[in-house]
Amino acid sequence: MLYLQGTFLQLLALISCLSFSRARLLPTSKDLRDKYDFIVVGGGTGGNVVANRLSEDPSVSVLVIEAGGSNDVLESQVPFLWTRLIGSTHDWNYTSAPQTTLGGRSISLPRGRILGGSSSINGMLYSRGTSDDYDSIAELVGDPLWSWDRLQPYIKKNELWSPPSSNRPTEGEFDPSVHGRHGLVAISLPSILQPIDDRVLQTTRENSEFPFNLDVNSGHHLGIGWLQSTVTSAGKRASSATSYLSPGVINRSNLDVLLDAQVTRLLVSNATDDITFNTVEFVAGTGFPQSVKATREIVLSAGSIGTPNILLHSGIGDPTYLARVGIKSTHNLPSVGQNLTDHIIAVLPWFANSTETFETVGRNTSLQAILLEQWKANGTGLFSGSGIDHLGYVRLADNASIFNSVPDPAGSNTGHIEITITNGNIFAEPTPDNLILSEVMVTKTLARGSVTLNSSNPLDDPIIDPSYLAHEFDRFALREAVRSGQRFIASPAWEGYVLDRVGDFAMIDIQDDDQLDEYLRKTGSPGLHFVGTASMSPKGATWGVTDPDLKVKGLRGLRVVDASVIPLIPAAHTQVPVYIFAERAAAFIKEDWKLV
Ligand SMILES: Cc1cc2nc3c(=O)[nH]c(=O)nc-3n(C[C@H](O)[C@H](O)[C@H](O)COP(=O)(O)OP(=O)(O)OC[C@H]3O[C@@H](n4cnc5c(N)ncnc54)[C@H](O)[C@@H]3O)c2cc1C
Ligand SMILES: *[C@@H]1O[C@H](CO)[C@@H](O)[C@H](O)[C@H]1NC(C)=O
Ligand SMILES: *[C@@H]1O[C@H](CO)[C@@H](O)[C@H](O)[C@H]1NC(C)=O
Ligand SMILES: *[C@@H]1O[C@H](CO)[C@@H](O)[C@H](O)[C@H]1NC(C)=O
Ligand SMILES: *[C@@H]1O[C@H](CO)[C@@H](O)[C@H](O)[C@H]1NC(C)=O
Ligand SMILES: *[C@@H]1O[C@H](CO)[C@@H](O)[C@H](O)[C@H]1NC(C)=O
Ligand SMILES: *[C@@H]1O[C@H](CO)[C@@H](O)[C@H](O)[C@H]1NC(C)=O
Ligand SMILES: *[C@@H]1O[C@H](CO)[C@@H](O)[C@H](O)[C@H]1NC(C)=O
Ligand SMILES: *[C@@H]1O[C@H](CO)[C@@H](O)[C@H](O)[C@H]1NC(C)=O
Ligand SMILES: *[C@@H]1O[C@H](CO)[C@@H](O)[C@H](O)[C@H]1NC(C)=O
Which residue ranges does the record assign to the Glucose-methanol-choline oxidoreductase N-terminal domain (predicted)? Predict the structure, then answer.
């Protein structure tokens, strides 16, 4: 009860901003039960996979507790409008600790606070990462079940390959043999094409640094390929909520989903119980803590920020450090919240000799209304996609000087740099000028940060310090990424189309490391792909939070299933790795409890 005293005002504020208490996707006649076999904390990307798979067995009861509300939100359905969810009521609105390596900036770090979690607000890019990514994780944790080959069935359980809403022909844009047609999350190629697409493809023929790759999701992603997205054949976002908690699944009588309820702590059970932590404490409409019990397992799926936050408030962490914020230690696990890892991105803008870019749409509200009507009519048009049509991966040169001091963090078929090209700026208010953008990202970042507590109040935000660019490798690779992006756009394909660089980017000599570093400190932006804060590690290791079966070390009845368990950041946007991990984890749980 320690945190209650100091937080009465905050609780009052919470009461007044919640429109209903205990809103549930349940028949209203049914009350929350006292106990469930399984409780999933966080109805996000990973959590909903587990809830779906466990509740396939009608003999067990499953509860999902989600802090956010329903995903029945237009901006979450219309793919092109995804950026409008950033900073909305469906975003946790986190801000980083000041990043000394980014010139002292505190940067905003969106996370989905809505059913589906970040899969309901993200950019929908579908990228699995490479065989190296998973094989290196399997090797690190000493368990071949995490290797690329052994994970193939789980990739397929997740994926529902789908034609784009326009039904345009897509031969030659993907490799059908590496895709699944029987999973739950719809994946599709762009429904409409962008005017710059031909130049992107021409570049792959002109410059050997950027060869065409038929399918960047084959496990071998080097080169430039067509972007696949979590978008349905109806031109709508596919999230873990729309797919794993579809109406038929929500309808299962053994599955309850509680919305607008924020989990505060897990409580230790009485010694007679089988599992160590059996009680989930949460705050819903009344503003006062309530609780519910799990008889078999609690599955923490609150994401790379939420999961360590809940663990630490439950006393699971480093005892010395917990004592400092006034939290009683229940279980000594010093790695909780450590090893936070994200990607770092540089956004590179050029003026475009075109009027057919996103800026033209962004400036014209009547055009937007027409595009929305078209989307509503049949799910086609610009609004049926994220607007990004291509992405690709490039390796640093084998003789790059950085490898004299830092071992290569990527396997040989893995790029250190990701490049996407977009037909204008989808992230900012539209400018009067028309632009073309390249976003370049360092994939195998080595900087490690942390999630720590600011107070003993579980409703307070934690301190999130990703330590962007704190590692020499990340700074080196981001400089090379900018140069690679510039080479892409310097290919003859872009002659007469790409004009001058824009703003601060125009002011620097990109061959000059110091000038480039300064630009990157000023403009570097977060990948939003956090992993590592409840890291999986070998059984018996002195570091890490979970064993390779995702059970929390030293405890019974508690697992973690979300991005936080991924120990090494994949060279990918992270929703698909989370889906893969969650499908694998659900199978572990079902095996343990002999579920069908
Ligand atoms: C703006 C944005 C764009 C992105 N774009 C892409 C992209 O294009 N492609 C891609 O692959 N990846 C993208 N990502 C990353 C990807 O979406 C995430 O890595 C992934 O969805 C994380 O899954 P998760 O299950 O770990 O967490 P989440 O999906 O975030 O789920 C955590 C859930 O737990 C809930 N929760 C947290 N704390 C509590 C609590 N105390 N009580 C109850 N519930 C709680 C949250 O509300 C949330 O629903 C993006 C992320 C963001 C934020
Ligand atoms: C995030 O910030 C926006 C804008 O200030 C606000 O409307 C929204 O309620 C915030 N989200 C949460 C979960 O508090
Ligand atoms: C929900 O279940 C009821 C009763 O089993 C059934 O009649 C109804 O069709 C189901 N609805 C959906 C969307 O599956
Ligand atoms: C432990 O048992 C006592 C007495 O039966 C009960 O009041 C308390 O709620 C239990 N605690 C938990 C965490 O289950
Ligand atoms: C961070 O992860 C590395 C493995 O990548 C491990 O060796 C190290 O011990 C971890 N640190 C903490 C504090 O858990
Ligand atoms: C906005 O879009 C509409 C519909 O395409 C078009 O008729 C109009 O000319 C546009 N306005 C401007 C200022 O370009
Ligand atoms: C969808 O509707 C638009 C008009 O709103 C029309 O131009 C287009 O042909 C339709 N597409 C399909 C595939 O029906
Ligand atoms: C790497 O090798 C290439 C030729 O293969 C050479 O041009 C370049 O200068 C070398 N770079 C370094 C840093 O040695
Ligand atoms: C931490 O607490 C201090 C003092 O209450 C506050 O000023 C600061 O904003 C908090 N930090 C975060 C990340 O919430
Ligand atoms: C812009 O493109 C047109 C052809 O579309 C070309 O005639 C013109 O020279 C280009 N402008 C510049 C500055 O390259």
Answer: 112-135, 303-317
Q: Which residues contact 417 (CB under 8 A, 6 or more apart)?
A: 393, 394, 395, 396, 440, 441, 442, 443, 477, 480, 481, 484
Residue 160 lies in a domain: no
Residue nearest to atom 10 of ligand 9 (CA): 454
Cross-strand partners of 352 = 498
Residues 6 or more apart whose CB falls under 8 angstroms from that of 481 comprise 346, 416, 417, 418, 419, 440, 441, 442
Averaged pLDDT for residues 161-165? 98
State the residue for tokens 């872009």: 494
What distance in angstroms lies between residue 391's CA and the mean position of ligand 10's atoms?
26
Confidence of residue 555 (pLDDT cuts 50, 70, 90): very high
Q: What is the mean pLDDT of residues 533-562?
A: 97
Number of domains in the chain: 1
Tell me, what's the pLDDT at 426?
Answer: 84
- Ligand 2 centroid to Cα of residue 460, in Å, is 14
Residue with the nearest Cα to atom 1 of ligand 8?
399
Average pLDDT over residues 392-418: 98
Tell me the pLDDT band of 30, cut-offs 50, 70 and 90: very low
**Residue 273 — pLDDT band, cuts 50, 70, 90?**
low
Counting atoms of ligand 2 from 1, which one is nearest the CA of 68? 13
- Average pLDDT of the chain to the nearest whole number: 93
Within 277-343, strands assigned E span 277-283, 289-300, 316-317, 331-332, 338-340
- Ligand-binding annotation for 263, yes or no, is yes
SS3 (DSSP) at 142 = coil
Q: Are 547 and 553 in contact (CB under 8 A)?
A: yes
Q: Please tell me the pTM assigned to this model.
A: 0.95
Distance CA(263)–CA(51), nearest Å, equals: 17
CA of 536 to the centre of ligand 5 (A): 10
State the CATH number of the domain containing residue 578: 3.50.50.60
CA 566 to chain centre: 12
**Taking CA 435 as the corner, what is the angle to CA 431 and CA 441, rounded to the nearest 5 degrees?**
110
What is the C-alpha to C-alpha distance for residues 175 and 218, in angstroms, rounded to an integer? 8
Residue 47 lies inside a defined structural domain of this protein: yes
Residue 68 φ/ψ region, left for φ over 0, alpha for ψ in the -120 to 50 degree band, beta for the rest: beta
Q: Give 531's contacts (C-beta < 8 A, 6+ positions apart).
A: 304, 341, 342, 563, 564, 566, 567, 568, 569, 570, 574, 577
Residue 517 in domain: no
* Residues in the chain, total: 596
Q: Could you count the other beta carbons within 10 Å of the beta carbon of residue 419?
A: 24
Q: Residue 11: what pLDDT? A: 38
Domain span at 543: 15-72+241-336+532-593
